[in-house]
Write a structure and sequence with these properties.
The complex is a heterodimer.
Chain A lengths: L1 H20 L1 H29 L7 H21 L1 H4 L1 H6 L4 H6 L4 H6 L8 H18 L5 H32 L7 H11 L8 H10 L7 H8 L9 H6 L2 H19 L7
Helix pairs in contact in A: 2-3, 2-8, 3-8, 3-9, 9-12, 9-14
Chain B lengths: L4 H14 L3 H27 L9 H13 L10 H9 L2 H6 L4 H34 L12 H32 L3 H15 L13 H6 L7 H8 L4 H31 L7
Helix pairs in contact in B: 1-6, 2-3, 2-6, 3-6, 3-10, 6-7, 7-10, 7-11
The chains are: A mainly alpha, B mainly alpha.
Chain lengths: 268, 273
């Protein structure tokens, strides 16, 4: 176990040094990431400027949802480039064979494919928005709230990591990476930037029970904010909800295991 | 007519090439449906508790959102990867040898790149949003049918938008003669294009004090003008002057592109042997 962590740290070290060799490229990518998510926030601001509130939610509250989910996704995104490129870089080329020959878990090696430093752009933007929301909101912070916020982020990282593992697992059947999963990753971020309560009931059910996006964003954040959930959930459920992200990650690895067992090399 | 043949041939060859990727088009279709639905629910929630009349009503917003999803690929938000490769490898030098006007050749190629996948996606998307959503009982979310005059105005405006979008993309392509990699433009362009065209939030919903600026910037011609003509938010009587606005910006950008290209070609150094 410690050996695995040391190896992952080494992989990341190499990857970070490699990316810093192309400083301009790195800075441009990070700036682009920052801008892209800042633009979304600008749109949010424009809507609140015109409408005042969103079904009773204030701008600062929605900014809190926005900030948390963007930080979460940025972290998960930085760790999963290997899974994202699994189809084109490993299955199609047959390079996955090499991973199988090494005496370490394949998922660990893929996680070490790249630590995408450029995601710092989105992370930074999310943190700025979150910091502003916290300063505007007057939340009575205590140990339980801080712990729940950290658990939310951890559950969220696990959830998005799980999505990427699922996307990669599909490549065992399809060879090519499927863009369709972007609906759940990027679409998930887009959806979770707003409170779940504003969506159609069918959407809410899917994003609670099938793809537990609401459990790693909306429900625990409602508890952190200390507001009553218009959907009527209780505090215990809200506080435990982020664990669904961890469970989702676990199930994704089960799917990954199935995939690895049926893998046949393309031979190229 | 004869002098145009090489350009039309370029357009049709690129079209056939780009239309090969049907699975990718299907994935894009589903993604955009999802995106459209999420955006409608967000706008719907804002409108449900809105006080007083807004610069656009919800029906007009619904049309704006669906047309935006249908025409998404037509926005000048990226550059042609094939072209990037040509610049990086130096193969772009062959283009200089062709007995064609270089800007015209690149414009034709880029026009196909910009519109091929969009034509494949836009029509099914519009049919789906207009006819199938009501069949599922989601009539409130359906793309409203335009009046005859508005439809004609829209078709003209969207053609002008395609030309404007192509001119902007060609400008980005030309910038690669200096930067050599399309990476910079590709990272920065989407942000400006999506917010200023109205893709993120319909432009009339921005604060009133920003409107004078938003009304004069060129990206408006890409989405805001055609979509609002379609929904009648821009009355048909004003459509002609709005389309002229789009075309005027197109001419300016084409002129600027030609100017840059003539300077770029003079200092072009072909890499390698």
């Amino acid at each position: 176990m410690t050996d695995s962590i040391a190896m992952l740290a080494r992989y990341f070290g190499v990857s970070i040094r490699a990316q810093l060799q192309y400083r301009t490229s790195f800075l441009l990518s990070a700036a682009g990431q920052f801008l892209n998510s800042a633009i979304e926030f600008l749109g949010l601001w424009a809507l609140f400027d015109r409408f005042g509130h969103l079904a009773g939610w204030s701008f600062a509250e929605v900014a809190f949802f926005y900030g948390v989910i963007n930080c979460t996704f940025a972290i998960a995104d930085a760790l999963t480039t290997g899974f994202d490129r699994f189809g084109s870089h490993y299955v199609k080329t047959g390079d996955f064979d090499r991973l199988l020959l090494r005496p370490r878990p394949t998922a660990l090696q893929l996680a070490g494919h790249e630590f995408a430093l450029r995601r710092i752009g989105r992370l930074l933007q999310g943190l700025i928005v979150l910091a502003w929301a916290i300063s505007a909101l007057d939340i009575p912070w205590d140990a339980a709230r801080v712990a729940l916020l950290l658990l939310t982020v951890a559950g969220g990282v696990a959830f998005f990591f799980g999505l990427m593992v699922l996307q990669a697992s599909l490549c065992f059947w399809t060879t090519e990476s499927l863009e369709i999963m972007n609906v759940l990753t990027y679409g998930g971020v887009e959806t979770a930037q707003y409170p779940l309560s504003i969506y159609h009931i069918a959407f809410r059910r899917i994003f609670t029970f099938v793809v537990p996006l609401g459990c790693i964003g909306y429900f625990p954040i409602v508890a952190v904010l200390g507001v009553d959930d218009p959907l009527g959930t209780g505090r215990v459920f809200q506080a435990l909800a982020p664990l669904a992200g961890v469970a989702f990650l676990g199930l994704s690895f089960v799917a990954w295991g199935f995939g690895v067992r049926r893998y046949t090399s393309t031979g190229s | 007519m004869n002098r145009l043949t090489p350009y039309t041939a370029v357009v049709s060859a690129r079209y056939r090439n780009l239309l090969q990727y049907r699975a990718a088009a299907f994935a894009g279709f589903v993604t955009q449906l999802f995106w459209g639905a999420v955006r409608l629910m967000i706008f719907g929630a804002f409108y449900a508790t809105a006080e007083g009349p807004q610069p656009m009503n919800m029906v007009e917003v619904v049309a704006y959102v669906w047309l935006g999803q249908a025409m998404l690929g037509m926005l000048p938000w990226n550059t042609d990867a094939d072209f990037q490769e040509q610049v990086a490898s130096g193969a772009v030098a062959y283009d200089l040898l062709r007995p064609l006007d270089l800007y015209g050749y690149w414009f034709a190629r880029t026009l196909a790149f910009r519109t091929a996948t969009t034509t494949l996606r836009a029509i099914p998307m519009m049919i789906f949003a207009m006819l199938l959503l009501p069949a599922f009982g989601l009539a409130d979310w359906a793309l409203p049918a335009p009046s005859g005059a508005a439809l004609i105005g829209f078709l003209v405006a969207i053609t002008a938008a395609a030309l404007l979008s192509t001119a902007i993309t060609v400008l980005a392509h030309i910038s690669m003669l200096w930067t050599l990699s399309g990476e910079g433009v590709d990272r920065i362009m989407p942000s400006f294009v999506t917010i200023l065209s109205g893709m993120v939030v319909p432009l009339p919903l921005f604060p009133d004090w920003l409107q004078p600026f938003l009304e004069w910037q060129p990206f408006r011609g890409l989405c805001d003008v055609p979509y609002r003509i379609y929904s009648g938010n821009i009355p048909i009587a004003e459509a002609a002057s709005e389309i002229a606005f789009t075309l005027a910006w197109t001419v300016v950008i084409v002129w600027f592109g030609r100017f840059l290209l003539s300077r770029g070609v003079r200092r072009l150094v072909v890499q390698g042997g």
